[in-house]
Amino acid sequence: MTLTVDRNHMIHGGNGQYSGKVQTGADPQVLIQLSSKGTFLYPQGPFRDVDEYLAFWTSVDIPDRILGNIALGYREDVKRRHYLAELEWRDLYDSANRSELTHKHDARVRSAQAARDEAWALYEDEWWSSHPLKIRTIFLREVAIAGQMSLCRSLLPKDVEDRVFDVKFRLDEDDLTVREIVDLYHLDRIRGYFDEPEITAVERIEELREEINRLRNDLAS
Fold it and tell me: Which DSSP letter does residue 113 get?
């Protein structure tokens, strides 16, 4: 049975919480109202089943600080991955087209460089289509929940914990599973931003930006 969370069909409580309606595949919608079993960073298991687990995560309060850290961490990380992708692409392209890019006739070199720029623009557009530049603010909560549901699934009985990956969240017009959200936003790469104090998150951002500057210098050289 696939569980789908749709913010348009959920009841909102205080503190930005859901008190939630949960879609359970072909089964009728059920109203789940459970008291919180812990906090976003420290859930108190074990949970009986996926329904109870989902009800907890869709009702627990998420501090704005953590949501902000996740958004900032993702944005800097995707920039870093973009620079790495460009370095790798240029190495491969230049190796395959070295004779034209270094031709003795300037006109051939200019033509090769123009072709390279055009090829990179096409590749870059395709790259960005599958690597969102940022997590949209209205979906930050769902992305954060998906990350924690994946991380903390061991709080479920062993025989059902992998069902967490099939739970779906409605993001705009798309229904994405927990696994798809974790993969799309590379949440395993920015796990530290889910619970780091603000000062540590800022330090992490500075480290990422220093690496990005190094990558920029590599591209410019």
Answer: H
